Amino acid sequence: MTDIERTEFNVQDTSFPSANDRFGQAGRDVDARAQFEELDAESNLRPKSLDEFIGQPKVRKQLDLVLAGAKGRKVAPDHILLSGPPGLGKTTMAMIIAQEMGTSLRMTSGPALIRAGDLAAMLSNLLEGDILFIDEIHRIARPVEEMLYMAMEDFRIDVIVGKGPGATSIPLEIPPFTLVGATTRSGMLTGPLRDRFGFTAQMEFYEVEDLTKVVTRAAGILGVEISADAAVEIASRSRGTPRIANRLLRRVRDFADVHAGGVIDLGAARAALIVFDVDESGLDRLDRAVLTTLIKGHGGGPVGVNSLALAVGEEPSTIEEVCEPYLVRAGMIARTSRGRVATLSAWQHLGLQAPPGTLGS
């Protein structure tokens, strides 16, 4: 089986629980039937239609028009690019597109498409109207991208047979399909590739109100009793991201099963989030370590990312890609030409008195 074949999944088989969810807590008896029931519940957390999808009202409205128009004309929709930070529902939206169009979904990722032959093998297996979803599409190899141009525009590819002077090009027709690309870094897409998408959707971070609905819906699917204020508490610490909200809900559920009789109230939610090192602003241990190093170790900055990474024992890429996006969005860190600078909000979050002239004061 090739790498490409291993990355293709049925729409119903693309949501996998974490290892903690599969095996339960150490030292506790695990009921196999209960575990299978939990797996089914976890796979159902993803919404199955645009009507079930919570949040992103502008994207949902625009996408509904695109899909409705295509269905009315009985043609494949234009190629769709979904852009935005991780965890906002890009993969789920691709699954919904396939469900709404009543077609199959083929899934792969940019890093898995190394050679042009990898893409050719996948395209040759598509049926008319199929949805091809490429996650992290900005990371596909250059030869693959060049083959994708012709496939997107003309629904054909040229397959090279042989080597050297005797090599020949054989045109291969492809049934009309829809490419759905997802990217967390739209700026890294080349202009020719970006221009070939007929519709581009920018996914935005969620408000607490929408995340509360996400938590409440997920709790109902998981069969967990949760109070309204507990749902708000979890949502407010989820960094505007549904994936984090669902993850925190599952961890709070673990705490409630052990210490609160399976019921999540405000007290249980707060106690559980303390255990899992998530504070009132959604910052975790690494976020606070970065702020502490920046403020207590360097007086608030400016500090280079390499120095911060060395002090907290992480790679610079981890600081830039995991911590900084939220800290900058929360207004606790500013990125300047001289390095990272802590703002007044960061000092206040750590309960420290900011010196005069602090950014944001």
UniProtKB/TrEMBL annotation:
Q: Where is it located?
A: Cytoplasm
**What are the protein's GO molecular function terms?**
ATP binding; ATP hydrolysis activity; four-way junction DNA binding; four-way junction helicase activity
Q: Which GO terms describe its cellular component?
A: cytoplasm; Holliday junction resolvase complex
Task: Return the SMART domains for the record.
Answer: AAA
To which protein family does this belong? Belongs to the RuvB family.
Which residue ranges does the record annotate as region Head domain (RuvB-H)? 280-361
Please list the residue ranges annotated as the AAA+ ATPase domain: 76-209
Reported EC number(s) for this entry are 3.6.4.-
One of the protein's GO biological processes: DNA repair
Pfam families from the UniProt entry: AAA_lid_4, RuvB_N, WHD_RuvB
Q: Which InterPro entries match?
A: AAA+_ATPase, AAA_lid_4, DNA_helicase_Holl-junc_RuvB, P-loop_NTPase, RuvB-like_N, RuvB_wg_C, WH-like_DNA-bd_sf, WH_DNA-bd_sf
PANTHER family, per database record:
HOLLIDAY JUNCTION BRANCH MIGRATION COMPLEX SUBUNIT RUVB (PTHR42848:SF1), PTHR42848
> Which residues hold DNA?
R335, R340
Tell me the segments the record calls region Large ATPase domain (RuvB-L): 26-206
Identify the coding gene. Answer: ruvB
Its source organism is Corynebacterium lactis RW2-5
Q: What is known of its domains?
A: Has 3 domains, the large (RuvB-L) and small ATPase (RuvB-S) domains and the C-terminal head (RuvB-H) domain. The head domain binds DNA, while the ATPase domains jointly bind ATP, ADP or are empty depending on the state of the subunit in the translocation cycle. During a single DNA translocation step the structure of each domain remains the same, but their relative positions change.
Q: Where does Mg(2+) bind?
A: T91
Record's protein name: Holliday junction branch migration complex subunit RuvB
Q: How does it assemble?
A: Homohexamer. Forms an RuvA(8)-RuvB(12)-Holliday junction (HJ) complex. HJ DNA is sandwiched between 2 RuvA tetramers; dsDNA enters through RuvA and exits via RuvB. An RuvB hexamer assembles on each DNA strand where it exits the tetramer. Each RuvB hexamer is contacted by two RuvA subunits (via domain III) on 2 adjacent RuvB subunits; this complex drives branch migration. In the full resolvosome a probable DNA-RuvA(4)-RuvB(12)-RuvC(2) complex forms which resolves the HJ.
Region named Small ATPAse domain (RuvB-S): 207-277
Does the keyword section mention DNA damage?
A: yes
Question: What are the UniProt keywords, alphabetically?
Answer: ATP-binding, Cytoplasm, DNA damage, DNA recombination, DNA repair, DNA-binding, Helicase, Hydrolase, Nucleotide-binding
